[in-house]
Structures are given as structure tokens and as C-alpha cells.
User: What shape does this take?
Amino acid sequence: MTKIIITALLLGSCGSNDNNNVKTDAQTIHEGDAAVDAPAAPDCFTGTPTTHDELINACPPAGTTRIFKTVHLPLLNPDGTVPPLP
Assistant: This one.
């Protein structure tokens, strides 16, 4: 019984070392939030990325060829809806 209590106390005292230093991602910008005459938003993040979202959306280095693929799923209806189950 004392082993269980000691184990519970040891596990309870184990905490994270982050010292509450939580980085938050940038706020989501919706298309409706932009003014009509606002310039188009860049399709990638410029600058030094510091968050996960900035890192995965970072602009590629100059001279890199970007490939954009459109996926066409063969079982979808022409309007993009899912067909009924058989």
C-alpha cells in the first residue's frame, strides 16, 4: 500500500518544464474580415517562423519551383457532393 502512495506522490510531483511559456499561433484571418480594397494576402508566411503554423506556411527559398495540384476524386458527383451509399 505504501508503494502505491509513494508512486502516486512521485507521479503527481512530475510536471512539465515549460514554465508556462506558451506560444500562441497567430489569429485566423477570414476572407470576410478584409476590406474590399485591401491588397491580397500572401499565400505564404514571410519572415522568420516562430510558431507551427508559420513554419508549415513559410515561403520557399527563392528559385524553388512550387507545384500546385488539383485533386479530382473519381467517385464524387460533378458538383462535388458525395454520392448516396449503395
Q: What stands out?
A: The mean pLDDT is 74. Residues 60 and 66 are 8 Å apart (CA to CA). Residues 2-13 form the longest helix (12 residues).
